[in-house]
Specification:
Elements: H1 8-18, E1 44-49, E2 54-58, E3 64-65, H2 70-82, H3 103-107, H4 118-131, H5 135-147, E4 153-154, H6 156-164, H7 167-178, H8 186-197, E5 199-201, H9 203-209, H10 229-242, H11 248-254, E6 259-261, E7 266-271, E8 275-280, H12 291-304
Helix pairs in contact: 1-12, 2-4, 4-7, 4-8, 5-8, 5-9, 6-8, 7-8
The protein binds 6-diazenyl-5-OXO-L-norleucine.
Length: 310
């Protein structure tokens, strides 16, 4: 039972204050140098509800690099485009490995464990690059239409930084190609993947864009069907089991919501039939998840009594 909080706005502001003394913990991602330039002390949170309310506190209107949160949107686009054929090429199991690990991919003959580790997201990038005449533009248009904001942009500085430090992602893509599981040319796959990771959005825009996952696939703002109820269930299931990488078990244990993180410091969590939480703070823990972002989602979930396991 979700608690009805009349002063959610004030609650969000209180929650941010509880995190002030943790600002020095963790490390901003620096394996993509452009991400290391972001101030580690920024933090924001937003909650968007399926009945049209948006709450926010702190730096919730400052855009940040969405990074792996983009994997959710890519997955939805690929499911819509090629249907169940997708599941011949990527699995739906937790990996138990870091998000950019390469070891398991060889054992498992180029079939990624799930669509939200890097190998899986590169596979999805291949599907999009192979099936759309202009996949990067199609992705950006999808984000703009879901958020209702045409100002959403690709941060070219982050893109260039990823491109020039993308050897591990290139290795994952070439390994999958060697097993015949990548169709397009690798530079096109990488270019699509780095582009979607380099999109900048703020907490409010991300929370709003994901409302369809809390509403059986229907965007509550426009009433458009974004994906089928069955695929909504599947995406939420993958986010519940793998969205926080090697910390997904602990996150399910303590929070209990389908969620996804990105190395830009964003964390999104879906509350079916209620709404979406998006929290942001750049410093990351050893799993690549935002320390304060994860705490903020936990805090609001506890406050409102949100969990899919109740
Ligand atoms: O490929 C990468 O390493 C980044 N562009 C995205 C990784 C990411 O966000 C993982 N999330 N925690």
């Amino acid at each position: 039972m979700i608690k009805d909080i009349s002063n959610l706005q004030a609650k969000l502001e209180e929650l941010l204050i509880t995190q002030q003394n943790l600002k020095t913990q963790g490390h901003v991602a620096d394996y993509i140098p452009a991400l290391a330039e972001v101030s580690p002390t920024l933090m924001g949170i937003s909650v968007a509800t399926v009945d049209g309310k948006v709450f926010g506190a702190g730096d919730d209107k400052i855009p940040f690099s969405i990074q792996s949160i983009s994997k959710i949107f890519g997955l939805v686009m690929a499911m819509n485009r090629i249907g169940d054929d997708l599941w011949q090429r990527v699995n739906m199991e937790p990996s138990g490995q870091p998000f950019n690990s390469i070891i398991q991919l060889e054992w498992e003959k180029g079939i990624p464990r799930n669509p939200v580790i890097n190998a899986g997201a590169l596979l999805i990038a291949d599907v999009l690059a192979s099936h759309f005449s202009a996949s990067k533009l199609a992705f950006l248009s999808f984000m703009r239409s879901l958020s209702g904001d045409n100002n959403i942009y690709i941060d070219n500085h982050v893109y260039q930084s990823e491109l020039s430090h993308g050897s591990r992602n290139a290795a994952l893509a070439y390994l999958m190609k060697s097993f015949g599981n990548i169709e397009a040319e690798i530079p096109d796959v990488l270019s699509h993947y780095f582009t979607q990771c380099s999109i900048s959005m703020n907490c409010q825009q991300l929370a709003t864009s994901l409302l369809f996952l809390a509403n059986k696939g229907i965007d509550p703002r426009t009433k458009n069907s974004i994906c089928t109820p069955r695929d909504t269930h599947r995406v939420n299931a993958i986010l519940s089991t793998s969205g926080m990488y090697d910390q997904s078990g602990e996150f399910a244990f303590s929070v209990g919501l389908p969620a996804k993180s990105g190395v830009g410091g964003g964390v999104v969590a879906v509350v079916p039939n209620y709404g979406v939480i998006c929290a942001w703070s750049p410093p990351l823990n050893k799993y690549g998840n935002s320390i304060i972002g994860t705490n903020l989602v936990l805090g609001i979930a506890e406050e409102l009594g949100l969990s899919i396991y109740h």
